[in-house]
Design goal:
mainly alpha, 344 residues, 76% helix, 12 helices, single chain
Length: 344
């Protein structure tokens, strides 16, 4: 998959060189498809690479570095964009059209090199054959997941992406509310990314040698409170940036235990399919978040007030997850979230 990524970004680089919008869209679709394959592999191998007692910590660390990578990409994209896009009055085009593709290929090659350090893992179900009917695969996976705590965990996990999409769409709109530049809006996104990474790391540390599901509803409650405050906060970039810190920290607390539960509770021979199904549901939830944001804005709601909608969604997730855990989840997960002493 990492080798395929090099080919995909090469197509994207060619799109910039040729100035072809359609080739760029095609490359973006290819990148999204590669990412859809890569996600379940990335998260599915974690339980096979670390001891069960380190699962929460490993997820926290990976989430931290994932968010740092997002920040690095966002920071690098600014000057690359400025170099690529000449002022409107210039008709000769930019002489830097080779730059985006070159940077992306270099990063993709580094990813290939990093992947070579991973140990080769045994196939859990070597006899498995490719199914050309993805809907059937999803349906079978959902039915199996519904027999235990996995479906509820997946829905709570997907809810995070609905809320996250709302926040990601709200922040760029702060340009108008705050009267600032696109760079400041990008910095606000960077603050959220850093805070989520730190929150994920803290959640992993506080979990110790166990998975702590109780952190998820607490994180959801923290997100709801933070976003309610943001909705009525002064429209000042510094104030908003400071208030985004607890939001990101709470988000890290919410996502890490759910991520670890999905990995731990999925059987080895079906973990990839279950995580792929969870990814599909999370992308549906993200799309729902986009539509919800669009409806709010077209209804005349200012960007910062949309935080109230996201806060309400977080509160629903926190209460629903908390009630499920105390009434059903504890019994369904009894003894299954503790790490066995002989874990590889």
């Amino acid at each position: 998959l990492k080798i395929a990524e090099v080919a995909v970004v090469a197509v994207a680089g060619a799109a910039f060189l040729l100035g072809s919008v359609w080739l760029a869209v095609f490359a973006m679709v290819l990148m999204a498809t590669q990412s859809a394959f890569f996600g379940p592999v990335k998260y599915g191998m974690i339980p096979e690479l670390v001891r069960g007692s380190r699962l929460s910590g490993a997820n926290g660390t990976i989430n931290l570095f994932t968010n740092l990578a997002i920040i690095a990409g966002t920071v690098a994209a600014g000057p690359i964009y400025d170099a690529l896009a000449p002022p409107v009055e210039e008709r000769g085009g930019s002489g830097w059209a080779w730059l985006p593709g070159s940077v992306m290929i270099a990063v993709a090659v580094l990813g290939v090199v990093a992947s070579l350090g991973l140990p080769r893992l045994r196939a859990a179900t070597p006899e498995l054959r490719f199914d050309w009917n993805p809907v059937g695969t999803y349906w079978r996976s959902l039915r199996e997941m519904a027999r235990g705590p996995l479906l509820a965990t997946t829905l709570a996990w997907a809810f995070f992406y609905l809320i996250g999409m709302l926040v990601l769409l709200i922040l760029p709109d702060y340009r108008e509310l705050l009267g600032t530049s696109a760079a400041v809006a990008a910095n606000l996104l960077g603050v959220v990314a850093i805070a989520i990474g730190v929150g994920s790391l803290l959640a992993g540390v506080l979990s110790g040698r166990r998975i702590r599901p109780v952190l998820a509803p607490l994180g959801g409650l923290g997100m709801a409170i933070s976003m309610t405050v943001l909705a009525f906060a002064p429209r000042d970039a510094v104030t908003v940036g400071v208030l985004l810190l607890p939001l990101g920290l709470a988000a890290g607390f919410y996502i890490v235990p759910l991520q670890a539960m999905l990995q731990k509770l999925s059987p080895d021979e079906r973990r990839g399919r279950f995580l792929g199904t969870a990814n599909a549901i999370s992308f549906v939830a993200s799309s729902g978040g986009s539509l919800l944001f669009l409806a709010c804005r077209r209804g005349g709601m200012p960007a910062d007030r949309v935080f109230l909608v996201a806060a309400a969604a977080s509160l629903v997730a926190a209460i629903g997850l908390g009630l499920w855990w105390w009434r059903i989840g504890r019994d369904q997960c009894a003894g299954r979230l503790s790490a066995p002493a002989e874990a590889p």
